[in-house]
Predict the 3D structure of the following.
Amino acid sequence: MSSKLKFRLALVLCCVMMMSIFAGCGGSESAPDDSGSQGEVIKLGFLGALTGSVANYGIPGKKGMEMAIEEINASGGILGHQVEGVYDDNKGETTDITAIAKKYITRDKVVAMVGDPCTGLTQVAGRIAQDNEVVILSAGATGTGVVEIGDYVYRNTLLDIYAAPAVVDWMVNQKGWKNIAMITSLNNGYSTALTPVFKAAIADKGGNIVLDESINDGETDFTAQVTKLKNAGADVLVFTGYYTEAALIMNEVQKQNLDIVLVGGDGLYGQDLATLGKSAVEEKVIFYCGFSSDQPGPETAAFLESYRAKYNEEPDMFSAQYYDAVYILKKAMEDANSTDPKVFKTELAKLKDYPGVSGNTTFGPDREPIKSPVCLITIKDGKFALLEKIPVNVE
């Protein structure tokens, strides 16, 4: 090769290198965020049961999450990136949610997980999220020992420690139900955690526990418990378990011609309560939660209209809270100008007065959600209906 040819070749290579350098610098004056390439998809992992005993929580939750993601993508995504939901069925089982959470993080590369509504399952997934520095935002877990796992773990639901005392105060001082029967499901972590909260509130508000019985999830014959209830002189029954057993208990109450109201937590919020209980639960079951489609504010009204148009059904607390959770994550990423959970978790912790469809949400110094009021829900004509809204003391 001649010296002239070598010189020309070197000159061409030099020009190519210079062009590469300038191309890498870019022409925009705006500071780039650290959220990855412009075409990168943001993945959010769904945690919930689509089959099994708690599918009444996960199925509407998935619909709420899907609708939020569709809306966000239609309006340009998050920081210019489209959002993709990853949906697996944990069946309400610890082994399943363990495998799914690990898959979401290691294989699907999600930046956050939304759910699970059950406290025990959230604790399992929360430890995995914390260990792997991925955010988890539970759309329903109300028991203790959740956010305590670490600074990647959040929830956006009304807590039992605030809601139950407000409900007991309403029972004792407004309804005059001072003699209270309790039934706990011993193999249900939600129930065993909620019962002590109710008992402490009953003692504090001047109520009397006249019967303290137990069952197990999966049982179907509650003849013995209702017979004891019939002879206990109770004004009201507090059941701290889930909707299936509540319906079956009330069927037995009706069978034994006992006139009594069953009160419980948001674990009773499942359509199977009305389907299985039928006339036995009509205006005879009252439970608390943080959402009602009755008396909606502007944000809730818009959500209701969109949800009904899309699914041809009524949304519930779980669809609303999953929907809100996705938008809360969006706000945190945009406030942080990053989709890196190590970065946006800091902005998530600063959430204040977020106007969601399930109520205004603020994260306190302990990252626990502060929400008020609590909605008391009953069943009328086979559908959930707002009975009353009562204030919650969160001090």
Notes: Residues 2-38 have pLDDT under 50 and may be disordered. The CA atoms of residues 21 and 27 lie 12 Å apart. The chain has twelve helices and 15 strands. The longest helix spans residues 3-25.
